[in-house]
Write a structure and sequence with these properties.
Strand content of chain B: 35-45%
Largest sheet of chain A: 2 strands, antiparallel
Oligomer: heterodimer
Number of helices of chain A: 14
Largest sheet of chain B: 9 strands, mixed
Shape of chain A: globular
Order of helices and strands of chain B: HEEEEEEEEEHEEEEEEHE
Strand order of the largest sheet of chain A: 1-2
Shape of chain B: elongated
Helix content of chain B: 10-25%
Radius of gyration of chain B: 28 Å
Number of helices of chain B: 3
Structural class of chain B: mainly beta
């Protein structure tokens, strides 16, 4: 065979293969010390799914008046939280709890501060339909997206079906599972062998362990994924976990938040009532208000002024600058 | 002289015939009509055994003091309030017919919406004589905590077809929705000025509605069973009366559970055979 004919045929074959076979696999990049994430079998990660979820996450047309998206309240630069006491939804409406961070949300076991929703997929429905947030009924949200050819095309590519509630919930959850943060100075120091923490931060870490903060803010993600009453109030207006379980012993209990990127997510507590990390440390140092459900871990800590500073400095060492500036998490990056 | 193949043919012909006859006499018999409930996909010969389901239609007619409710009409409740309804909806799961001990499945799930129809469900049911009919008012606890986005689009439990009967802050379906307007002034005119909203649910408030009747379901025949939903009785029972003005909005929250308990019982007790 003429060698040129052979080369042309081989070239066409490769080109055909390239056109037909697209590697859509999405591989999560786990930081040192992070476990493998449990991902539902019906929503294994692919680039198509993550791209679609990201586009939906930043999509304002998922709100009644097309002014609010998920990203309006979960701001990347703020650790996917927001710096207001209560976030504004459509028409300036506000909810009743401070916006939680989405940092490492794929590792959470129950969702919302009272744990009322069991999966990341189901969680998607609440803010979209909540009158104080995006205020768009799910059928309306689906119909809006379905009417946009680009979303229909992306839904078919990602899930092999027309855009529907299944696609909406799965895709946004898929994107949110990629929001993994594990490259803070704390990680670099203790897990990557880089000597980056200063004496104050190291002393703060020791206090964090010795004073028992680590009892609830435990593990690689600084949360036990459980619910605790920290004695913020004697009488809770927001009853927390009891709202879901109806059990009196759950009154005033809220899910332990991760402390990763906590420096960026002020104000703090379920109602945003403490403005700064210094305020939080000051509050916890007192041992909290009396409440029958208060965790036994919450006790007066008798911290000195320097120790309070050290503890705050340690908490700030959990800020992962790469995570909050990573363009891959932003609206315009597309995985290919 | 016979050829080798001719010898083989003459020797094997009787055997082939015997096999063919045996196979023919072994043809599997059964019902070959796909519309029959005992359809046998494996059958090669219809033996006349086909049996067919009966159709059971169940309707619910909301009434107020005996009259069918119109969303355009204003009624007076037991406290003298003027009441006008705008939405009457509920979920029904696991309808069965039987004799109180043995039960036959009739229908798995449906959503009743008076704005659209008085039909609760229509189902193919095994023919027979039955003395009781029962179903859940609400969604059983397994499906109540399932993912509403994962159901097929024609399933009443799908988030789209559920038409708002799902709480997103706490997984679970709203079992009963009663909405409308009220006026404490019994002499008022026009549409009552205040709205009421009763969204009732939670696992503990799933109610089982059981009715006695004489039901003879005949194959390939349609039998209709009519319920009445006496909404005047939704607001009161033997021991308590709901003051709409004191509790115009109920979402089955923790501090509303006693009222949720009362209203789901009232609703179930109001749902009786016509």
């Amino acid at each position: 065979m003429n060698k040129w004919v052979f080369i042309v045929i081989a070239g066409v074959f490769v080109a055909c293969q390239k056109g037909e076979i697209k590697d859509d696999t999405f591989v999560l990049d786990y930081p040192q010390g992070f476990p493998t994430m449990d991902i539902p079998t019906d929503n294994q990660l692919t680039k198509s799914r993550v791209n679609l979820g990201k586009k939906l996450f930043y999509e304002t047309r998922l709100s009644e008046d097309s002014t609010v998206s998920c990203a309006s309240c979960h701001v990347q630069q703020l650790g996917f939280a927001e710096n207001t006491v209560l976030s504004a939804g459509v028409h300036g409406n506000t909810g009743f709890r401070n916006t939680p961070t989405l940092t490492n949300i794929g590792y959470a076991e129950l969702f919302f501060m009272d744990g009322g929703v069991p999966t990341l997929e189901l969680q998607v429905l609440a803010p979209i339909s909540n009158p104080d947030e995006m205020n768009l009924e799910i059928p309306d949200a689906v119909n809006r997206m379905k009417a946009i050819p680009e979303y229909q095309k992306m839904a078919q590519e990602a899930y092999g079906r027309d855009f529907d509630a299944f696609v909406l919930t799965r895709a946004i959850a898929a994107y949110e599972r990629t929001l993994i943060s594990g490259n803070s100075p704390y990680d670099q120091h203790f897990l990557q062998g880089k000597n980056v923490l200063n004496a104050s931060e190291l002393n703060g870490y020791q206090l964090f362990v010795d004073k028992g903060c680590v009892n609830c803010h435990s593990g690689f993600n600084f949360t036990d994924n459980d619910f605790h009453n920290v004695g913020l109030y004697q009488n809770y207006t927001d009853i927390g976990r009891k709202r879901v379980t109806t059990i009196d012993a759950d009154e005033g209990k809220f899910k332990t938040p991760t402390l990763r990127n906590v420096e960026l997510t002020a104000p703090y507590m379920h109602d945003g009532s403490l403005a700064t990390l210094e305020d939080v440390v000051e509050f916890l140092n007192t041992g909290g208000e009396a409440h029958p459900n208060k965790s036994t871990f919450i006790q007066p800590m008798n911290l000195t002024s320097q120790e309070k500073t050290d503890l705050v400095n340690f908490l700030k060492s959990l800020t992962d600058t790469d995570f909050v500036t990573n363009e891959k998490h932003g609206a315009f990056y597309v995985y290919n | 002289m016979k050829s080798k193949s001719a010898i083989l043919f003459s020797n094997s012909l009787p055997l082939a015939l015997a096999v063919a006859l045996t196979l023919s006499s072994c043809k599997k018999e059964g019902c070959m009509d796909e519309n029959a409930y005992n359809y046998n996909w494996d059958a090669e010969k219809d033996n006349g055994s086909c049996m067919y389901n009966a159709e059971l239609k169940v309707n619910v007619i909301p009434k107020f003091n005996g009259d069918p409710i119109s969303f355009d009409s204003v009624y007076h409740n037991i406290m003298g309030y003027r009441v006008k309804f705008s939405s009457i909806k509920f979920y029904m799961t696991y309808a069965k017919v039987g004799d109180g001990t043995n039960w036959t499945d009739a229908h798995s799930v449906s959503q009743y919406n008076y704005a659209n129809s008085t039909e609760l469900f229509s189902a193919d049911v095994t023919p027979g004589s039955y003395s009781q009919i029962k179903f859940n008012v609400g969604v059983d606890s397994v499906r109540n905590h399932s993912d509403p986005a994962s159901y097929p689009s024609d399933n009443p439990l799908n988030i789209i077809t559920s038409s708002g009967m799902f709480w997103t802050w706490n997984t679970g379906y709203i079992f009963v929705i009663i909405e409308g307007f009220y006026d404490t002034d019994s002499l008022g005119t026009g549409t009552p000025p205040n709205s009421f909203t009763y969204h009732l649910g939670m696992d503990d408030y799933l109610r089982v509605n059981t009715q006695s009747l004489s039901l003879n379901l005949v194959e390939q025949m349609t039998t209709t069973v009519n319920y009445e939903l006496n909404m005047d009785q939704f607001f009161y029972n033997a021991t308590d009366t709901l003051d709409i003005d004191a509790n115009p909005v109920i979402h089955s929250l923790v501090n509303q559970l006693p009222i949720t308990d009362m209203l789901t019982q009232n609703f179930n007790n109001s749902l009786v055979l016509e």
